[in-house]
Amino acid sequence: MRILRFLAALVAVICLQLFGSWLYPSFPRAFDLFLVLTVLCALRGNSAIGLLAGMAAGLSADALSAGPYGLFGFTNTLIGYTTARVSQRLVIQRASQYFLVTAAAIVVQQLLLTALASLLFDHGRLPDLAWLPIKAITGGFIAFLTIVLRATLYRGRERRRRGRLERLRL
Fold first, then answer.
1. Which of 42, 82, 88, 95 would suit a FRET pair with 52, their CA atoms being 20 to 30 Å apart?
2. What residue ranges define each of the domains in the chain, with the CATH number in brackets?
3. pLDDT band per the 50, 70, 90 thresholds, residue 76
């Protein structure tokens, strides 16, 4: 069931990325929806899930980007695994903590992309680090909103379940 939810989320992220890029050509500079998906999956604490989610999201990002294939796949895999390992040692419960972890992951990913591109390619395009604060803030905010929405939906579902149980008791 979890894999189906991840695949549905990945398809939604791909569609949002394509629509956002069509609507606003600088959308990929300001938003990294693939890394947000990777971090949210990795924060469940399972290293294998973080690794596989990072790989799938990164390779999907590589397929949509105009850059060399594999850079996003490598960095998102590394970020997914590292985030999962960190979440095993930290207690992350508040939406603000999700914001901070996601923003930090985006900063580390962009620095890794810059280092890899400068080491591997002489003429390769380096990521534009001027967009880094914007990308970190938007990614953190998207993670924050996702966690708040998830908690709100969970509370509503629990309220409805309790209401059904109360009606059955009567």
1. 95
2. 2-169 (1.10.1760)
3. very high
Q: What phi, psi does 49 have (nearest 5°)?
A: -65, -40
Structure tokens at 58: 């990164």
Which pLDDT band holds residue 126 (cuts at 50, 70, 90)? low
Distance (Å, whole) CA 18 – CA 78: 24
Given a cut of 80, is residue 81 above it in pLDDT?
yes
* Residue whose entry in the numeric block shows the structure tokens 């709100």: 152
User: Residue 74 and residue 58: Cα distance in Å, rounded?
Assistant: 7
pLDDT at 116 over 80: yes
Give the distance, in angstroms, between the CA of residue 155 and the centroid of all CA atoms in the same chain: 23
Q: Is the dihedral of CA 78, 151, 134, 19 positive or negative?
A: positive
Residue range 5-19: mean pLDDT, rounded: 94
Residue 95 banded pLDDT, cuts 50, 70, 90:
confident
> CA-to-CA distance for 137 and 29, rounded, in angstroms?
12
Is the distance from CB of 81 to CB of 50 less than 8 angstroms? yes
d(CA 15, CA 27): 13
Output the CA angle 122-125-127, nearest 5 degrees.
125
